[in-house]
Structure prediction request, 187 residues.
Amino acid sequence: MKIGKRTEYGLRALINLGIAEELEQRLVTASELAACDNLPLKFVEQIMGDLRAAGYVETKRGRFGGYFMAKPASSVTIGELVRLLDGPLAPIACASQSAYQKCSCPDETHCGLRMIMIDVRNAISNILDRYTLADVVEVTLRKIRRDGADHYFLTKTSTDGKEPRKGTPPDASDGFLAGLAETMTEN
Prediction:
């Protein structure tokens, strides 16, 4: 399975929106979402419009406006977002649950290709439907903090222009030495 740019950019934008929300920046502009990952602004605006129409994000207009999550990130699976932005997960239409189309095979029930593609669809679905947007945001932030990496919303100036936003410093318990110390005390 290969997701399209629309889905890739949409997922990146939503993950960054989730990161911003976790860092207590509730409103994020489309230009900020585009700047996070060097995405084309017009494309991000189109995708965010579609996500708004589908009820995943809302907007606030005005000088200090922007996008914000309309649903809790913990209630949104990656699978549902991929299906919304890219369509069915099945590699071929006769293996799809949501967009089934009969193929040219004379005996679908015994078709080896269809059987393996159903397994592919199930494997992809099991992974994408298991994880929520909140899970991805949490793991992403944990890794950024653990590695001391830069991220747009950890260092940017707040939208009210008052002071640079600083994320929560890395927790010592996320570090390698803390994990090593725990292992040594268990032995």
In short: The longest strand covers residues 57-60. Residues 157-170, 174-184 have pLDDT under 50 and may be disordered. The chain has two domains: 5-76+133-186, 89-131.
